[in-house]
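### Sample
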Amino acid sequence: MTSDSGSSSSAADAQVFAETQTFDLVVIGAGAIGENVADRAVQGGLTVALVEAELVGGECSYWACMPSKALLRSGAALREAQNVSGAREAVNVDGFDVRAVLNRRNEVVNEWNDKSQVEWVEGAHITLIRGFARFIGPKELAITHENGSVTKLVARHAITVSTGSAALLPDIPGLADSAPWTSREATSSQTIPKRFAIMGGGVVGCEMATAYASLGSEVTLLSRSALLSTQEPFAGELVRDSLIGLGAQVKIGVSPTQVERNGAGGEVTLTLDDGSTLVVDELLVAIGRTPHTGDIGLETIGLKPHQWLSTDDTLLVLDDEGRPLEGEWLYATGDVNHRALLTHQGKYQARAAGDVIAARALGKKLSIESWGAHVATADHEAVPQVTFTDPEVASVGLTEEAAKKAGYSVRAVEYDISWVAGASVTSENYVGRAKMVVDEKRQVLLGATFVGQDVGELIHSATIAVVGEVPLNRLWHAVPSYPTLSEVWLRLLETYGRDGSSF
């Protein structure tokens, strides 16, 4: 069979199709990122098919961002109340209702029912196709439906891969056979294990350690390196102290060498490389991610299976030589391109990709200069992130170490957030720290990190300063309201000036 573009595929010829449908754009993966690509392209005037084999809304809605934050929130709210006189006396410490926490989580994810998401897709004039997508040639896909029938989809202009990522399982003897949890099981479990081990000191590991310690598990966190090692060092240190305060054990520089489960549903024994053993009821593996590209037919279009899809800043997929595929028709957005494995960055990419696909298809003028409407410039040095541990960790841009490695002339200053008036109003036991990293040549912010209660709400101001390259002498005139945590901005700037610089 031949597509509209004239390309042909022996695989397509051999396949029996129930029907063939043609759209301007086909998006593989109906998570938050795929939905946004499709929506922007439809708004730009294209016909779009959105293909999904699981739940519409994807990982973030059902197994990642939303359920994990729901699990974390109740414990955080309780501790916030316990740190304020008056509220402290009103809180019944023995009344923490774990079942209510899990039920609220279930409500947040709509009981893993995607009806409302489907209604949104249909209301946005996007055609939803349920099934598993596999490339059979350039601009051609075979969609296998649950009933076994197969539909051929042909894209007139473009296909976008938004299939996301999955948890990476290391090659440790016995691990795969021990039925370990991944982030999916950790965020969807209807029970709380009494003894819970977590492999990995990154965002998922630290957040789930916080959540499960709050819910009563005896948590042991195993990390080969410092916690949150891509952040400023004090971030991981403060989170480690907090986890220990919640009753968790934190073992740094320790990894399992053998894992064994005692029968289905039995306890799990971990043999560690320090010679000790650890016996738990469940084990969560959170050491990294791998792309969902293993069985989507990349080899039929000249790419290697199981790989992250490298892209240019317009999100066009590049081959091993760094060139777009012939015809410039394949795009990748979200986790699968490995630019920034964060939902908000994936949605940012999706907006750029949907717009540029529509513009190219309709022959409109492109804005592909740095910070243009059709590129994902912010993925490089302006990525914001919040880790919802207790305390929260919020950061944007480059750490001091990363800025130095990038060749910038760097100066950094830190400030204890507990010293600002807003912190003393917020909590009687506020613990937090802030840091800004400055490009001395241009006198602009390269990065900022905040650790403390509610600092997630501070990070967008820092993001604006980084993206806008706001000069410090202008930032000085952005007066923070009193008494708020934002006063830390003034204190950072004052500290910077006292150290010998002027604005």
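Residues 391-498 form a domain with the Enolase-like; domain 1 fold (CATH 3.30.390.30). This sample (Oxidoreductase) is used throughout the tutorial notebook.
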